Amino acid sequence: MILLVRENREYLLAPGETLETDLGVIEVPETVAPGDIVETHLGEEFTARALRGPDLFAHFERTGAPMMPRDIGLVMGHTGCSGGDQVLDAGTGTGVLSAYLARAGATVTTYEHDPEFADVARKNMELAGVDDAVTVRTGDVTDDLDELSEQESRFDLITLDTKDAPRVVERASELLVPGGFLSAYVPFVEGTRAVVETARSTDLQDIKTYETIQRGMDIDERGTRPSTAGVGHTGYLIFARA
């Protein structure tokens, strides 16, 4: 798949695919590459781009509200997830976090309790080109905690976006390598407190909690000011270390 971009519009198409638009018919060459110019039959030009992380966020099939790029960036920045890491993820959803981690070189095992959501996530992993690095399991991770804790290799990172996060946090020390990280994304204050209190009751260390807020800036001929549009708050992130 490749993106064809022109000003404020973009289309995700496969080589050889045809699409009718108000700017004319787009016929994507079989050998299209990033940087190529593709013209419609009316001579309107689109530029080809390879898919990158933010593009996946925009073009994944969604099964709910995905984690925002700013939250994903904090997870990756605070845990240092990189090539060779083994990741356990719970609450796959759209799969955008798993895709980002896999594109950074990690191998991810992710759990999604809804079978239909899990099927969508698998298709999204194919679109991202990381289906060989991400295993989407259908079910509840808490049902497999005994099995996961008994396996020979442990995880470098556990990421959670699920209501039963405290139950996983209770067992995190059994699942993580020494110095490994836990990261939990929680939408509500009450759930955040439950995760933190559970982490404090274990031998996890360096427990830190953040609210993620981001506001855009409006820059035009009148001047520069924070944007009044959009929602700055997305959720809460808890980090801890084994």
Q: What's the CATH topology name of the largest domain?
A: Rossmann fold
Biggest β-sheet, characterized?
7 strands, mixed
Percent of residues in helices: 25-40%
CATH class of the largest domain: Alpha Beta
Quaternary assembly: single chain
Helical run tally:
8
Q: What is Rg? A: 21 Å
- Mean pLDDT metric: 93
Structural class: alpha/beta
Shape category: globular
Give the DSSP E fraction (strand runs of 2 or more residues).
Answer: 35-45%
Could you list the spans in which at least 5 consecutive residues all have pLDDT below 50?
Answer: none
CATH architecture annotation name of the largest domain = 3-Layer(aba) Sandwich
CATH homologous superfamily classification of the largest domain: Vaccinia Virus protein VP39
Number of strands: 15
Sketch the topology as an H/E string, one letter per element: EEEEEEHHEHEHEHEHHEHEEEE
Q: Biggest sheet: strands side by side, in what order? A: 9-8-7-10-11-15-12
Structural domains: how many: 2
- How far apart are the termini? 40 Å
InterPro entries: rRNA_Ade_Mease_Trfase_CS, SAM-dependent_MTases_sf, TRM61_C, tRNA_MeTrfase_Gcd14
Domain tRNA (adenine(58)-N(1))-methyltransferase catalytic subunit TRM61 C-terminal: 70-219
GO molecular function: methyltransferase activity
Keywords: Methyltransferase, S-adenosyl-L-methionine, Transferase, tRNA processing
